[in-house]
TrEMBL record:
Belongs to the class I-like SAM-binding methyltransferase superfamily. rRNA adenine N(6)-methyltransferase family. This is 23S ribosomal RNA methyltransferase Erm. One of its GO terms (molecular function) is methyltransferase activity. InterPro entries: KsgA/Erm (IPR001737), rRNA_Ade_methylase_Trfase_N (IPR020598), SAM-dependent_MTases_sf (IPR029063). Residues 22-182 form the Ribosomal RNA adenine methylase transferase N-terminal domain. Keywords: Methyltransferase, RNA-binding, S-adenosyl-L-methionine, Transferase. GO terms for biological process: methylation. The keyword Iron-sulfur does not apply. PROSITE patterns: SAM_RNA_A_N6_MT (PS51689). CDD domains: AdoMet_MTases. S-adenosyl-L-methionine binds at N15, L17, E62, D85, N101. It comes from the Bacteria.
């Protein structure tokens, strides 16, 4: 195994950040909040060290025991280095910010876990460029993004070229910023997410055909909703914004319940 400073262990999927401008951009994005920071996949401390200079408490999680040990010797009293797995590390039960240069092959698993954690306010993550774009709805949103949009806002402040990492990955990266909304756009998470799944997997040449087939909207209601929002009948689920999804959910809820039942009981819980 390589002992060079940026010789990441292949089996851990490590591509270390080396570009000072990208490091500064991540730190700037994290400065939107105050309070504790949790860094996932800390590596050799490219982000840990500048983050620690803010004086905020930092917990740096690193799977490689050698790198964790070296990093612990290089950091001050406000940094706790933890030898652990980013997919298993228990996040604090107080408001905090998550930062990380995620191993690209663990991005989806890490995001799914983060979405279900309750206390973080902001996450600033380095991920594959295509993942960053899809999460932010650039060029079309994915089912995962639509499922969580009522609770989180997504943005991509910068693209990160592959040469900013060592070893150099096969694809570019991007800075993905996820901020928890102060007030969610939807109350019933389980019902809404089942609705999104049904729309994304529904059959039809566009939403005008897909929506009635889900059984939640009549064809007329679907056409009227699309016209009101200036959307083509051939628009696809990926073309909708967070506000579109919330509006569509509430319309479907109203049509389903006829205002006679609370939102929390209108739809079944999603399948595990």
């Amino acid at each position: 195994m390589s002992a060079l400073p940026y010789g990441g262990r292949h089996e851990l999927g490590q591509n270390f950040l080396t570009d000072p401008a990208v490091i500064a951009a991540v730190c700037t994005a994290a400065s939107r909040t105050t309070g504790p920071l949790v860094e996932l996949a800390a590596g050799d401390g490219a982000l840990t060290l500048p983050l620690s200079r803010t004086g905020r408490p930092v917990t740096a999680v690193e799977l490689d025991p050698r790198r964790a040990s070296r990093l612990a010797r290089r950091t001050g009293a406000n940094v706790e280095v933890v030898h652990g797995d980013l997919l298993r590390h228990r996040l604090p039960d107080v408001p905090h910010t998550v930062v990380g240069n995620l191993p690209f092959h663990l991005t989806t698993a890490a995001l799914r876990r983060l979405f279900r954690q309750r206390h973080w306010e902001l996450a600033v993550l380095l991920v594959q460029w295509e993942v960053a774009r899809r999460r932010a709805g650039i060029g079309g949103a994915s089912q995962m993004t639509a499922s969580w949009w009522p609770w989180f806002e997504f943005s991509v402040p910068a693209k990160v070229p592959a040469h900013a990492f060592r070893p150099r990955p096969a694809v570019d990266g991007g800075i993905l910023v996820m901020a928890r909304r102060p007030e969610p756009l939807v109350e019933n998470q389980a019902g809404y997410q089942e609705f999104v799944r049904e729309v994304f997997t529904g059959r039809g040449r566009g939403l005008a055909g897909i929506l009635p087939r889900t059984g939640h909207l009549s064809a007329r209601a679907a056409r009227n909703w699309l016209a009101r929002h200036r959307l083509s009948p051939q628009a696809l689920p990926r073309d909708l914004t967070a506000e579109h999804w919330a509006s569509l959910w509430h319309l479907a809820l109203h049509q389903r319940t006829r205002c006679s039942a609370p939102e929390s009981s209108a739809f079944p819980r999603p399948r595990p």
